[in-house]
């Protein structure tokens, strides 16, 4: 495998047209849960099945891109055995954008911390900009108080050890996350890891902020539908319960995806909307939304047309909504696919969803346009695909 000479947080296209993926190193001591993390996140392995995973004996590269194993950034995830060292890794640390270091929350921390410090020291000279993400893993094993206490202790010890080694290492960016394959904390943590690799993140966040303020939405996420990682969210804080709710809803809808696909394949049913969507700013709809209803929206935006002018097959964008009563009275969870691989999940006041449906849909079309424009700019700039 040919490796680039310089660190890069962006995938580039090599001369032969193949995409250089963003490299992420998955490190940690034996049995800390590295392979489980990779398998649960990207191969949909049920968490309980991780029990049967074989130990990793040599460095294994897993490729994820927009076509097959979809993720928003073409990734190359290096799953390493527990005994790997900087010298035996087989690639310079300058090749990696991010190191995800996994620590079993119930472990004796001495050994994992020494290994982490070894890699921080190894990376410092060659790639000081590398992101170190420490996953304090298997968190669900402990009670809430113990979990927080262990999390704090690990952070403290790592910081102390780094300061003992050299004051310079304090400059290395280290981020700590509590994770478990048994809940959505892993997806949330890995989403945050990816956010640092998305150049256009602030523009996407800006679009989501506008969507939220126009529709009175308290929270909106843009999810990658395959990996179930969120690409961006609006600027209000993420609370775990809302994130979990959105992940579960997305997972449930994805299980119905084959039904939508077969519809999408039947072209004559697709109606093109007018090329410029007309905003219905005061649109009110008296038709109440049925709870837990899934409704197909067939739309074709101007950017669906290739620039050559040749009519491309219209895309199918399903949408769905579910009332969150009684747990969240007066709130509706909505889902809108905005590109073939990205979906908007938003909480909306039920009154807005039911009474101002036109306004909501216009804002979805507007968001879709914005995301496609960003995608086009990204594509032109780096001639590579971050979003599909
Ligand atoms: N309770 C709990 N167990 C987990 C979690 N993640 C992984 N495990 C378990 O941890 C054990 C080791 O998982 P692996 O993914 O094989 O760990 P690894 O770090 O890849 O191991 P090596 O390849 O030997 O270095 C398995 O029995 C998993 O089921 C978690 O979040 N919670």
From TrEMBL:
GO molecular function: GTP binding; GTPase activity
Annotated InterPro entries: Gtr1_RagA, P-loop_NTPase, RagC/D
Region (Disordered): 268-310
UniProt record, GO biological process: cellular response to starvation; negative regulation of autophagy; positive regulation of TORC1 signaling
Keyword GTP-binding: yes
Cellular localisation: Endomembrane system
GO cellular component: endomembrane system; fungal-type vacuole membrane; Gtr1-Gtr2 GTPase complex; nucleus
UniProt cross-references to CDD domains, sorted A to Z: RagC_like (cd11385)
Keywords tagged on the record: GTP-binding, Hydrolase, Membrane, Nucleotide-binding
Chief site of localization: membrane
Composition skew (Low complexity), residue ranges: 283-299
Known catalytic reactions: GTP + H2O = GDP + phosphate + H(+)
Function: GTPase involved in activation of the TORC1 signaling pathway, which promotes growth and represses autophagy in nutrient-rich conditions.
Assembly and binders: Component of the GSE complex.
Family: Belongs to the GTR/RAG GTP-binding protein family.
Protein name: GTP-binding protein
Source organism per UniProt: Coniophora puteana (strain RWD-64-598) (Brown rot fungus)
Taxonomic placement: Eukaryota, Fungi, Dikarya, Basidiomycota, Agaricomycotina
């Amino acid at each position: 495998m040919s490796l680039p000479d310089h660190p890069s947080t962006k995938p580039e296209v090599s001369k032969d047209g193949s995409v250089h993926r963003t490299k992420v190193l998955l490190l940690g001591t034996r049995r800390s849960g590295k392979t489980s993390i990779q398998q649960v996140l990207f191969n949909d392995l049920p968490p309980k099945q991780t029990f049967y995973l074989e130990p990793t004996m040599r460095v294994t590269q897993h490729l994820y891109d927009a076509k097959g194993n979809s993720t928003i950034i073409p990734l190359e995830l290096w799953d390493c055995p527990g005994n790997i060292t900087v010298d035996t890794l087989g690639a310079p640390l300058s090749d990696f954008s991010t190191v995800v270091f996994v620590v079993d929350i119930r472990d004796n921390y001495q050994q994992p911390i020494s290994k982490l410090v070894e890699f921080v020291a190894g990376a410092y000279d060659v790639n000081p900009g590398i992101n170190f993400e420490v996953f304090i893993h298997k968190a669900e094993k402990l009670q809430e108080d113990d979990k927080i206490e262990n999390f704090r202790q690990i952070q403290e010890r790592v910081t102390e050890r780094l300061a003992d080694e050299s004051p310079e290492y304090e400059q290395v960016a280290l981020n700590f996350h509590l994770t478990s394959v048994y809940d959505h904390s892993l997806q949330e943590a890995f989403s945050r890891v990816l956010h640092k690799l998305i150049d256009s993140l602030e523009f996407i966040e800006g679009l989501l902020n506008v969507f939220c303020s126009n529709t009175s939405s308290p929270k909106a996420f843009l999810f990658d539908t395959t990996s179930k990682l969120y690409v961006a969210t609006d600027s209000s804080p993420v609370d775990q319960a809302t994130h979990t709710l959105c992940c579960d809803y997305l997972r449930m809808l994805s299980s119905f995806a084959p039904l939508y696909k077969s519809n999408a394949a039947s072209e004559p049913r697709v109606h093109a909307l007018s090329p410029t969507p007309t905003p219905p700013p005061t649109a009110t709809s008296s038709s109440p939304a049925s709870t837990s209803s899934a409704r197909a929206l067939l739309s074709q935006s101007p950017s669906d047309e290739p620039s050559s002018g040749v009519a491309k097959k219209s895309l199918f964008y399903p949408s769905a909504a579910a009332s969150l009563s009684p747990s969240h009275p007066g709130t509706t969870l909505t889902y809108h696919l905005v590109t073939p691989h990205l979906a908007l999940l938003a909480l909306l006041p039920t009154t807005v969803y039911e009474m101002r449906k036109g306004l909501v849909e216009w804002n979805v079309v507007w968001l879709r346009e914005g995301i496609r424009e960003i995608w086009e700019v990204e594509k032109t700039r780096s001639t590579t695909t971050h979003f599909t």
